């Protein structure tokens, strides 16, 4: 499912998605340890990977533009792709 997100540097993408009452898994509740909140970014208008996110991806397969929504912030209005 493709959804639009507004620029917001205070709420993570996970929080923004949850605030829209769109279902998204978040087993570790945003602590960058479960990987269930993975999304695909559809532009480059998002924050860089945090050190904790870089640590999560070490040794794991990461698709192009795939990120942890709990560790990513939307810098300009854009779209993301949710697993469905
Ligand atoms: S909610 Fe677990 S890694 Fe994002």
Overview of this protein structure:
This protein is 17% helix and 19% strand. It has two helices and four strands; from the N terminus they run βαβαββ. With 84 residues, it is of the alpha+beta class. The chain has one domain: Beta-grasp domain (Ubiquitin-like (UB roll)). It is globular and about 30 Å long. Bound molecules: FE2/S2 (inorganic) cluster (FES). Residues 26-28, 30-37, 68, 70 line the site of FE2/S2 (inorganic) cluster. FE2/S2 (inorganic) cluster (FES) is lined by residues 26-28, 30-37, 68, 70.
Task: Give a quick set of tags describing it.
84 residues, globular, binds FE2/S2 (inorganic) cluster, four-stranded antiparallel beta sheet, alpha+beta, Ubiquitin-like (UB roll)
Give a short synopsis of this structure.
Helix content is 17%, strand content 19%. The chain is of the alpha+beta class and 84 residues long. The longest helix has 7 residues, at 13-19.
